[in-house]
């Protein structure tokens, strides 16, 4: 496996709860998605990821039992040196049901932060190195909530890196505005996790600027919620065939080709999907191939409308 595996993080969004919006997840998960089966599936993917050299796991309070599963795996296996990032701001309310009318509820407030940070600490303790605001958008009340900003600054002062994730067609605006936030003359945030893939690359310039300024950049939705694996455009399939790999590896390799991307977060639902994703770490796209992929970019508003139309499965 290429040394680039150290730039890959394993995300547990698809494994910590029974329903999610990733295409291609259904056949990869246990036939019965009870808690015990999903825990076992999570452990299997974590085991293979660790064996492959992945040392960063990304979870969230809203990813069902992802923090609980990760904590149990760490305790059972005794692994050290695993970097953990988590997120607050969404609460999981799906009650472990596939047919839940609402799966998660968003709230950016000082009270929600205090509650969820305490929940994260109870499960993962001081192993959390990065705590992120979940899905920060330009209309979030966080930007003018001084008590919340002060609480985040205090967490940062206590040694936990504070970041934010973004979503929606205005990611670039949220990135620039968030990194300008200061408390007592010090930046509130030092990391960002944004969507970037060959279908939605619009945040690229803002992320490159954030990286150049010394901030950490994590990339999520590298497969566009499975679209680039299950419904890959012809050019992606052609490049994959030329390299003897799958379209998912091409999509992840396109992320890794960006020097400003410190981590590519992948979200496999099974060991087989993990292995397929990790083939990206040994795949070097040519300049011609990378250029051909740029033609796939969709208008951001259209991309996010499509994403919103995906059903929880």
Please characterize this protein's 3D structure.
The chain is 40% helix and 17% strand. With 313 residues, the protein is of the alpha/beta class. An eight-stranded parallel beta barrel has the order 1-2-3-6-7-10-11-12, surrounded by six helices. The longest helix has 18 residues. The mean pLDDT is 97.
Number of helices: 12
**Largest sheet properties:** 8 strands, parallel, barrel
In sequence order, what are the helices and strands, one letter per element?
EHEHEEEHEHEHEEEHEHHHEHHH
How does the overall form come out from the CA principal axes?
globular
Q: What amount of the residues lies in strands?
A: 15-25%
pLDDT < 50 runs, ≥5 residues: none
Summarize this structure as a short list of keywords or feature phrases.
12 helices, 313 residues, globular, alpha/beta
Secondary-structure map with pairings?
Layout lengths: L7 E4 L23 H18 L3 E3 L7 H12 L5 E6 L1 E3 L11 E3 L3 H15 L3 E9 L9 H12 L3 E6 L4 H9 L2 E2 L2 E2 L3 E5 L8 H9 L3 E5 L6 H4 L3 H10 L3 H10 L6 E4 L4 H8 L8 H8 L5 H10 L4
Parallel strand pairs: 1-2, 1-12, 2-3, 3-6, 6-7, 7-10, 10-11, 11-12
Antiparallel strand pairs: 4-5, 8-9
Helix pairs in contact: 1-2, 1-10, 3-4, 5-6, 8-9
């Amino acid at each position: 496996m290429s040394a680039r595996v150290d730039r890959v993080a394993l995300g547990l969004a698809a494994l910590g709860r029974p329903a999610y919006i990733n295409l291609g997840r259904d056949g990869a998960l246990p036939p019965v998605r009870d808690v015990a089966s999903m825990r076992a599936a999570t452990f299997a993917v974590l085991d293979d990821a660790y064996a492959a050299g992945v040392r960063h796991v990304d979870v969230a309070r809203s990813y069902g039992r992802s923090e609980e599963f990760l904590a149990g795996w760490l305790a059972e296996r005794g692994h050290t040196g695993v970097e953990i990032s988590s997120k607050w701001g969404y609460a999981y309310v799906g009650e472990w049901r596939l047919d839940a009318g609402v799966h998660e509820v968003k709230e950016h407030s000082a009270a929600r932060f205090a509650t969820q940070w305490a929940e994260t600490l109870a499960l993962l303790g001081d192993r959390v190195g990065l705590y992120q605001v979940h899905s920060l958008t330009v209309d979030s009340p966080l930007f003018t909530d001084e008590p919340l900003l002060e609480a985040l600054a205090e967490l940062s002062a206590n040694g936990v890196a504070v970041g934010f994730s973004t979503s929606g067609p205005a990611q670039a605006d949220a990135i620039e505005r968030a990194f300008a936030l200061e408390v007592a003359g010090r930046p509130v945030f030092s990391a960002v996790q944004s969507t970037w893939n060959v279908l939605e690359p619009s945040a690229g310039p803002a992320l490159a600027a954030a990286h150049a300024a010394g901030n950490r950049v994590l990339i999520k939705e590298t497969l566009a919620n499975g679209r680039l694996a299950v419904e890959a455009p012809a050019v992606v399939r052609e490049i994959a065939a030329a390299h003897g790999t799958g379209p998912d590896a091409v999509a992840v390799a396109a992320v890794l080709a960006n020097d400003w991307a410190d981590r590519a977060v992948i979200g496999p639902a099974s060991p087989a999907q993990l292995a397929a994703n990790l083939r990206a770490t040994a795949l070097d796209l040519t300049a011609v191939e990378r250029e051909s992929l740029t033609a796939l970019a969709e208008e951001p508003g259209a991309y996010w409308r499509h994403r919103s139309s995906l059903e929880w499965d």
